[in-house]
Specification:
The chain is mostly helical and about 260 residues long. It has one domain. It has 13 helices and no strands.
Length: about 260
């Protein structure tokens, strides 16, 4: 039987819907502050379903973390090929537009690293060990480098230290920040959007919460406390249906 890519810990994170959903929530918030989020708006047409772009990222990442080592490199080239195609299409339509920078790819990769570990800590009610952090980081780093994304730190400890500095200096509001949240609201509907921003306010790092001016209401604390208690139980499925549009839930649970 072919050897799977990555560690058992990594596969645990990317085969569990609650973990994936939390990476989705954190990344949706942080991506609004990424300088090159204009790629989501390319051709100046706001996507009618912006969250689907994030879903597709997670689906591909899960495929990688549950495939064989032999197939992982092929997947890396396939995913990079999709991005190259988008760059070519934008260049044809707008002319002379820059490529997606290595920094932008790194920003998305950093979200996949940090929010998966944050999700594990939140759902399991424990500190993720240094060994688990390092193992997961190296799994992700290996795949990102196969995609041609460069300049990854040699260890998780160094990556995390630099990440905290970059988050403070580089994750700032830009002209698309509010547009993106308005698109989330339109896509999710008022109730789901209301729940999303309140959950974000408790889940994302404080700097990102404050920069986005996300609410951190005391009355929501009980819901934030309750969610991990439902993890792995039937009640979690009801929460998923409440929080996610049917097509998004279908995409995140697709095999």
């Amino acid at each position: 039987m072919p050897r799977s890519y990555g560690s058992e810990f990594t596969r645990k994170l990317w085969t569990d819907l609650d973990h994936i959903l939390l990476v989705y929530v954190g990344s949706a918030a942080e991506f609004a502050l990424v300088e090159e989020n204009h790629w989501l708006f390319y051709t100046n047409k706001l996507p009618s379903e912006p969250l689907d772009r994030l879903v597709s990222t997670f689906i591909w990442n899960r495929k990688v973390m549950t495939t064989s080592e032999a197939d992982a490199e092929t997947l890396a080239h396939t995913i990079r090929g999709f991005h190259d195609q988008v760059e070519s299409e934008r260049n044809r339509e707008e002319g002379g537009h820059p490529k997606i920078s290595n920094q932008a790819f790194r920003a998305v990769g950093a979200m996949l690293v940090e929010y998966a570990l944050l999700a594990e800590s939140y759902l399991e009610g424990r500190q993720v060990s240094d060994h688990e952090k390092e193992t997961y980081y190296q799994d992700q780093r290996g795949f990102f480098e196969a995609m041609g994304i460069q300049d990854w730190e040699p260890s998780y400890q160094e990556f995390h230290r630099n990440r905290e500095v970059e988050a403070t200096e580089q994750l700032l509001p830009n002209k698309h920040t509010q547009e993106l949240f308005q698109a989330y609201r339109k896509d999710l509907g008022l109730l789901r959007y209301f729940l999303l921003i309140h959950f974000m306010g408790w889940f994302v790092p404080e700097h990102i919460r404050a920069t986005l001016d996300l609410p951190k209401a005391c009355w929501f604390r009980w819901a934030y406390w309750l969610y991990p208690k439902l993890h792995g139980h039937v009640g979690a499925k009801l929460v998923h249906r409440l929080l996610l549009p049917p097509r998004v839930l279908k995409g995140l649970t697709a095999t």
